[in-house]
Amino acid sequence: MFDTTVMLPKETAQALVELTGEARVDTALTRVIRDFARQKLMELETGLRQFEAKYGMSFETYRRLWESEDRPEYYTFEAENDYLMWEGLVTRRNRLTGSFAWLP
Q1: Taking the complete model, does pTM exceed 0.85, yes or no?
Q2: Beta carbons of 97 and 91 less than 8 angstroms apart
Q3: Which of 12, 45, 47, 49 sits at a 20 to 30 Å CA gap from 93?
């Protein structure tokens, strides 16, 4: 972690304070970041649940099958696209979860 100073335009600082009801700009900014991160994580979880419902399994189970079995249905555009999209959602969720673990 690093410590840095960020300069915000007065209007932005005021908007953060008004939006959150926090008196301190740094606290308001942390709250906005936390809330945005939670929203993104919820969106990612929704996408993950859709793929899990479509394939009836977790990504890890699907990945193991994909890597260990040679089946023609794995080579369709839809299957390959789903795999890449699903993997991207898992990766992004893991990164966000790790990056924002410090948020209260």
Answers
A1: no
A2: no
A3: 12
Report angle CA 92, 95, 99 to the nearest 5 degrees.
Answer: 140
pLDDT tens-digit readout, 34-61: 899 999 999 999 999 999 999 999 999 9
Q: Let me know: does 48 contact 89? Beta carbons within 8 Å.
A: yes
Q: What is the pLDDT of residues 54-82, one digit of tens each?
A: 999 999 999 998 888 777 777 789 988 99
